[in-house]
C-alpha cells in the first residue's frame, strides 16, 4: 500500500498534467503523431498505376510476375518513454529536481497517449536497465507509469543510453514514438541513437538545471560528481573560472544540438527554472508546420 502523501502527489500530477494535455497538447498530439505510421497489410498482384517502389521483389521473383506490398495507415500508436534515472538526475537548484521534472513530463506524454487510445510503455535506465513496463492502454496503467517514474529507486548511478536503446529494440515489435528524457551526460550514443531513429520516431527531451550552465559568485565551492563520485573544489569568486565554466557548458549544449540535427532526431530543451509546457507546445507546432 502506497503512503498517503505519495498517493496525493500522484493525484496532483494527474490533475495538472491532464489539464495541460486537454488545454494545450491534445490537438497538436493528434495532428503530429496520429496516422503517421504505416503498417503492412498484404501482398497483391501489381496493377497499372501502382508505384514501382512498392514492388515486393522477393515475391515477384518467386511467382514470376510482379507483386506489390500493400500498407494501411496505423491508427493506434505505441509510445515508449525512456527515462534516465542516473544519479545526475537527482540534482536541482531551482523549483525542483531534474528527476521530478522528468517524471512530470513522462506523465504529460503518457496522458496524451492514453487520451488518444494509444499504448504507452516505460523503460527506466541508468548504466543498466532498471525497470520495464510493457506498453498498454488505460488510466490505471498510466497511473502506474507515473508512480514508477516518480518513486522508483534505481541501483545504478551512471548513464548508458546505448543499452537503453538496444533494450527498446528487443522489447518492441513495431515502430514506436520514443521519447528519451535525460540530461544526456553520456558519451558515444550518436550511432545507437541514429540506428534507433531509423526504426522508431525518436525525440530527445533534454533536462538542464541553470547551475549546469553557469556558476554563481559564491567563493570556494566543493562539488561531487554524482555519477563518478569524484570530488573537487572550484573558486567561483574568480571571474575567469566562471566564464570558462559557462563557455564549456554552452559548447557542450551546442555540440549536443548539432549531434541531434546530424542524425535527424528532434529535441526539446527543458530547463528546471522555466515552464516546460511552453517548450513542448513549441515542439508540437514546429512538427505540425513541417508535416
Written overview of the protein:
There is one protein chain. The model has no long low-confidence stretch (mean pLDDT 87). The chain folds into 2 domains: 4-27 and 76-208 and 264-290, von Willebrand factor, type A domain (Rossmann fold), CATH 3.40.50; 39-72, no CATH class. The chain contains 8 helices and 10 strands. Helix 1 (4-33) crosses helix 3 (98-115). The protein starts with a helix and ends with a helix. The chain has 291 residues and is an alpha/beta fold. The longest helix is centred in the N-terminal third of the chain and has 30 residues, at 4-33. It has helices at residues 4-33, 57-63, 98-115, 139-151, 161-171, 190-199, 239-262, 276-290; strands at 38-45, 67-73, 78-84, 119-125, 129-136, 177-182, 201-208, 220-224, 231-235, 266-271.
Summarize the structure.
The protein has 291 residues and is an alpha/beta fold. It contains 8 helices and 10 strands.
Amino acid at each position: 500500500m502506497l503512503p498517503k502523501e505519495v498517493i496525493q502527489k500522484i493525484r496532483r500530477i494527474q490533475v495538472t498534467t491532464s489539464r495541460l494535455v486537454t488545454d494545450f497538447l491534445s490537438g497538436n498530439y493528434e495532428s503530429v503523431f496520429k496516422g503517421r505510421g504505416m503498417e503492412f497489410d498484404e501482398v497483391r498482384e501489381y496493377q497499372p498505376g501502382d508505384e514501382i517502389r512498392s514492388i515486393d521483389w522477393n515475391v515477384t521473383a518467386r511467382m514470376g510476375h510482379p507483386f506489390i506490398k500493400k500498407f494501411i495507415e496505423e491508427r493506434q500508436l505505441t509510445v515508449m518513454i525512456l527515462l534516465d534515472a542516473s544519479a545526475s538526475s537527482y540534482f536541482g537548484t531551482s523549483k525542483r529536481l531534474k528527476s521530478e521534472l522528468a517524471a512530470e513530463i513522462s506523465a504529460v506524454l503518457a496522458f496524451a497517449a492514453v487520451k488518444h487510445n494509444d499504448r504507452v510503455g516505460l523503460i527506466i535506465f541508468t548504466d543498466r536497465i532498471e525497470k520495464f513496463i510493457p506498453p498498454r492502454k488505460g488510466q490505471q496503467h498510466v497511473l502506474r507509469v507515473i508512480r514508477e517514474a516518480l518513486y522508483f529507486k534505481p541501483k545504478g548511478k551512471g548513464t548508458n543510453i546505448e543499452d537503453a536503446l538496444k533494450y527498446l529494440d528487443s522489447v518492441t515489435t513495431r515502430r514506436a514514438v520514443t521519447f528519451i528524457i535525460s540530461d544526456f551526460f553520456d558519451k558515444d550514443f550518436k550511432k545507437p541513437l541514429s540506428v534507433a531513429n531509423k526504426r522508431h520516431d525518436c525525440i530527445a527531451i533534454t533536462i538542464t538545471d541553470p547551475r549546469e550552465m553557469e556558476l554563481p559568485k559564491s567563493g570556494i565551492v566543493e562539488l561531487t560528481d554524482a555519477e563518478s563520485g569524484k570530488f573537487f573544489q572550484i573558486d567561483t569568486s574568480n571571474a575567469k573560472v566562471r566564464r570558462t565554466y559557462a563557455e564549456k557548458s554552452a559548447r557542450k549544449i551546442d555540440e549536443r544540438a548539432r549531434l541531434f540535427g546530424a542524425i535527424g532526431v528532434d529535441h526539446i530543451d527543458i530547463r528546471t527554472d522555466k515552464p516546460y509546457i511552453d517548450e513542448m507546445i513549441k515542439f508540437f507546432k514546429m512538427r505540425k508546420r513541417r508535416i
